[in-house]
């Protein structure tokens, strides 16, 4: 038995949860993968997986083995990358988690540039606004935009800052009064972003309670409703910048005090940081520095 190969298949199976998907990605048969996993279990003298016709679940021992197997593969990958770095050709796979709106706007341009600079690094990017455990989900790197300090078990590297804008479509004021102070928002149709930490309290000046007929987990979706004159949004500038410049929406309360957003690059704290990840973070810091 090729134990390293078996460990690699086990880790991939745990991440994908399907023999079929692993077989498709590795261009091998399900039966071969099943035999490799069975040989690994026999060698360990323990069952790592509960198999069913629909899915695969880890046993308690399998969960502990998975964590340690990932660490082994990361160290092997780091050793390989050490040699590759000496030849100035970093390669390998980076699994990245990023907020949906930020990924579609600023980060899409960033990683297009990164791929040109490092064509041998394979990017596996997952966009979503829900809070995920980077280690549990197997991510090498995550992005978080927050107005508060990041309190986590990760290493956080600040990359850049964004601001919030209060946005409204021009047509909205055809049937609603003007907004001259934050308190005026209490009488307007204000949309709520589901994952916003302040819930329905917008942090403008001393804070203002808002309400409206739309709650949504996507600021990009929200922007379309704002453009149509349906309501008002408290939007990060990386989402609304272009719409404001094009006159599709108007920014109100420009002079009112609002918090800034800091974009952090997060990665799991560990003794051996893969060199491809170091290269990526250094590139991110330089990319954002050059933009300002």
Outline the fold blueprint:
Layout: H1 3-16, H2 19-26, H3 30-44, E1 49-51, E2 56-58, H4 60-86, E3 92-98, H5 100-104, H6 106-117, E4 121-127, E5 141-146, E6 154-168, E7 192-193, E8 201-202, E9 208-209, E10 215-216, H7 219-227, E11 232-236, H8 237-245, E12 250-252, E13 260-268, H9 275-290
Parallel strand pairs: 3-4, 3-5, 7-10
Antiparallel strand pairs: 1-2, 5-13, 6-11, 6-12, 6-13, 8-9
Description of the structure:
The structure is a single chain. The chain is α/β, with parallel strands linked by helices and 292 residues long. The chain folds into three domains: 3-83, Arc Repressor Mutant, subunit A, CATH 1.10.10; 90-160 and 262-290, Periplasmic binding protein-like II (D-Maltodextrin-Binding Protein, domain 2); 162-259, Periplasmic binding protein-like II (D-Maltodextrin-Binding Protein, domain 2), CATH 3.40.190. 39% of the residues lie in helices and 23% in strands. The chain is built from nine helices and 13 strands. It has helices at residues 3-16, 19-26, 30-44, 60-86, 100-104, 106-117, 219-227, 237-245, 275-290, and strands at residues 49-51, 56-58, 92-98, 121-127, 141-146, 154-168, 192-193, 201-202, 208-209, 215-216, 232-236, 250-252, 260-268. Strands 3, 4, 5, 6, 11, 12 and 13 form a seven-stranded mixed β-sheet that branches. Strands 1-2 form a two-stranded antiparallel sheet. Strands 7-10 form a two-stranded parallel sheet. A hairpin with a 5-residue loop joins β8 (201-202) and β9. α1 crosses α4 (60-86). The relative contact order is 0.14.
């Amino acid at each position: 038995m090729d134990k390293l190969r078996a460990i690699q298949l086990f880790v991939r199976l745990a991440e994908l949860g399907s023999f079929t998907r692993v077989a498709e990605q590795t261009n091998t048969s399900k039966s071969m993968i099943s035999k490799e996993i069975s040989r690994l279990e026999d060698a360990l003298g323990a069952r790592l997986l509960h198999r069913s016709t629909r899915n695969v679940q880890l046993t308690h021992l399998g969960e502990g083995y998975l964590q340690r197997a990932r660490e082994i593969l990361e160290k092997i990958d780091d050793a390989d990358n050490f040699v590759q770095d000496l030849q100035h050709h970093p390669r390998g796979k980076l699994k990245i988690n990023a907020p949906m709106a930020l990924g579609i706007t600023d980060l899409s341009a960033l990683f297009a540039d990164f791929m040109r600079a490092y064509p041998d690094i394979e990017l596996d990017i997952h966009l979503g606004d829900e809070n995920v455990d980077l280690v549990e989900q197997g991510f090498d790197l995550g992005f978080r935009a927050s107005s508060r300090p990041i309190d986590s078990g990760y290493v956080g590297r600040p990359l850049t800052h964004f601001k919030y804008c209060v946005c409204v479509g021009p047509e909205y004021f055809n049937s609603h009064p003007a907004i001259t102070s934050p308190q005026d928002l209490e009488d307007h149709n204000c949309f709520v972003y589901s994952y916003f930490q302040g819930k329905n309290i917008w942090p403008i000046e001393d804070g203002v309670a808002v309400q409206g007929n739309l709650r949504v987990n996507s600021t990009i979706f929200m922007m379309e409703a704002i453009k149509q004159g349906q309501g008002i949004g408290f939007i990060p500038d990386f989402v609304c910048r272009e719409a404001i410049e094009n006159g599709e929406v108007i920014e109100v309360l420009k002079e009112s005090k609002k918090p800034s957003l800091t974009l952090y690059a997060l990665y799991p704290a560990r003794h051996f940081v893969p060199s491809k990840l170091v290269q990526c973070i250094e590139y991110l810091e330089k990319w954002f520095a050059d933009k300002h």
